[in-house]
Specification:
The protein contains 4 helices and 5 strands, in the order H-H-E-E-E-E-E-H-H. The chain has about 130 residues and is of the alpha+beta class. Helix 3 crosses helix 4.
């Protein structure tokens, strides 16, 4: 995200793309998304809780619908929040995505030697009887 390529892409997206004909923009998007089957977005948020209208914000969600499945992760106040967005008619086993993802995170935490893995994450990994697959 800090490479010159990222800055050039952002500049192009903000300065050139809005002036391209709709057909060119659609064709470009089609060429990009037809070569991929998932988009993963990670956004670093603030390390400390924020306040809004006099109340502490205890969590945040990032939700970005897309033409292909989208995994969105957002860090906020020492926690990771995430969403998986997909079209149920295209991913018929989509109900397994959450537990499989949780299982992968639990495994990663164990591999990294984390002393405390949140119970909610472990419970999510055990859903559908896949915790030991």
């Amino acid at each position: 995200k800090r490479s010159p390529r990222a800055f050039v892409m952002m500049w192009f997206q903000n300065k050139i793309a809005p002036y391209l004909p709709d057909g060119v923009r659609r064709q470009t998007a089609y060429k990009i998304f037809s070569r991929h089957n998932l988009v993963l977005t990670n956004v670093p948020g603030p390390d400390q809780s924020c306040w809004l209208a006099g109340r502490q914000v205890t969590g945040m969600q990032l939700f970005f619908p897309n033409v292909i499945p989208q995994v969105d992760l957002l860090t906020y106040a020492g926690m990771v929040h995430g969403n998986v967005v997909y079209q149920p008619s295209h991913w018929t086993h989509g109900n397994r995505i959450g537990p499989l993802y949780a299982k992968a995170l639990v495994g990663l935490g164990q591999e990294l030697g984390l002393a405390k893995i949140p119970a909610g994450l472990k419970e999510a990994a055990e859903k559908l009887g896949i915790a030991d697959e």
